[in-house]
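Hey L., structure's done. Input below.
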Amino acid sequence: MKVFLDYTKDLHFKASARNFKDFNIDEPTSFHGTDLGPSAVEYLLIGIGGCLGTTFIYCLQKNNIKLEAFEVVVDGTLLHTGPKMFLRLVNVDVDLKFTPEEASSDEDINRCMKEFTEYCIVTNSIANDKLRINVNCIKR
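Output:
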């Protein structure tokens, strides 16, 4: 899995993943950016919500549970922490709000609610601290 980021100016990048081209990554003006797109932290929160949402929906679909409505709300908390007071994402709250069709099985819904989080690649990679990040600086 590989993504590409091309620097444009200030703190703004254009990113590509698979066949999706030129989506913006930037910081808000309060963080010295130009606010041309979501920040990297916002994309992380989108990834968390997207992974949990799709994992939950997949479980419901496998059990033939149809929904009338579904919404994911992700709320991340940034705080200055540690001896150097670096800004860090310290907490993430995720609400999956859904309305099943009336004929849906409560037993199957409850099983999905209990089990789906163990299948989310994103949250299990970052929350369990098992993701190694290797950094290479390559001068061209």
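The beta strands are 3-9, 12-17, 20-25, 67-81, 86-100. Helices lie at 40-62, 106-115, 121-126.

-- N.
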